[in-house]
Amino acid sequence: MDRKKAGVPLVCHGHSRPVVDLFYSPVTPDGCFLISASKDSNPMIRNGDTGDWIGTFEGHKGAVWSCCLDTNALRAASGSADFSAKVWDALTGEELHSFEHKHIVRACAFSEDTHLLLTGGLEKILRIYDMNRPDAAPREIDKSPGSVRTVAWLHSDQSILSCCTDMGGVRLWDVRSGKIVQTLETKATVTSAEVSQDGRFGLVKSYNMPCNVESASLEPKYGNKFIAGGEDMWVHVFDFFTGEEITCNKGHHGPVHCVRFSPGGESYASGSEDGTIRIWQLGPSTSDEQESPPNANGKLKANTVSDAARKIEGFHLPKDGQPEG
Fold first, then answer.
1. What torsion do the CA atoms of 17, 21, 26, 32 make, to the nearest 10 degrees?
2. Which Pfam family, an example, fits this chain (predicted)?
């Protein structure tokens, strides 16, 4: 099959180590924003459309594995190898809170109503922090069966999704009871997961991938395409219904650790071992890729993920009409 090349990406420089996590905010009155996590310990926030650097959150003393923004893009959160999760003012860059853990924090997520922060990591404990009472002890959910890699809120903050680094499966937790209510079995560990607006919890599609895949993201508006990136350094675009590859984007100089669609679905971002973030437009073009000059202040994030499978286990989960980007 002839691979169609996509257009010229926006290349965001700045991170000095691999970019390991990306997160788009919903569209706000000021636009959408993209936050990145990197092993260089400095999460960065950018304009989600242009990739222009806005600010760097300084304070972690170890690799940052996870990052997110709240619904209004007013606060950011990050989880780090320095055994902490931090909450930041996304407008000023000020550190608002630092929540100490007893091991590496691999995942964090704000609730849809922005009042709660969920964290998980190598302690195998899911913790919920009340942003209205940040000095209070967090609520601890039942012990996770493995080290937590990914977390997400769904069902209007009534449920939690989690995946582990050391075992397969996607787990659905009931927030009120703190118990696992359902497990979606997978053949390998799940290295990335996101929540869509459809109400099913179960396997919808499974695709054979051309390489070991570390991250995937579903187009949020129509759900008719998905992207995947992994060890072959390419960013692949596929038809959701047929699994046929539509576009293959080459440009990164290292494995692709994370991919995310923008909230409107018109573009998508990829983060790599090479320390750059690239923002690609969805439509294909014949133009050759050209790198933009480094931003004087900008940095990029990088992430590494553990075991990667040769299949993406596709599933849909509701988040009350607001898909995660």
1. 20
2. WD40
The secondary structure of residue 41, as a DSSP letter, is: S
Give every residue of the chain whose pLDDT is below 70, as ranges: 1-7, 197-200, 283-325
Which residue, chain included where needed, has tokens 């257009």? 7
The angle at the Cα of 87, spanning 141 to 170, to the nearest 5 degrees, equals 40
For each of the domains in the chain, give its residue range(s) and CATH number, in order of start: 10-314 (2.130.10.10)
Q: What is the largest CA-CA distance in the chain?
A: 57
Whole-number Cα distances in Å, 246 to 8, 125, 265, 268: 16, 40, 15, 14
Task: Give the long-range contacts of residues 58-64, CB within 8 A, separation 24 or more.
Answer: 58/93, 59/86, 59/95, 59/98, 60/84, 60/86, 62/104, 63/17, 63/20, 63/38, 63/39, 64/20, 64/21, 64/37, 64/38, 64/39, 64/40, 64/301
Cβ proximity of 240 and 259 under 8 Å: no
Q: Are 254 and 271 in contact (CB under 8 A)?
A: no
pLDDT, position 301: 28
pLDDT at 290: 35
Sheet of strand 33-38, all strands in order from the earlier edge strand to the far edge: 19-24, 33-38, 44-47, 53-56
Tokens standing for 253? 């100089």
User: Do 146 and 167 form a contact (C-beta atoms < 8 A)?
Assistant: yes
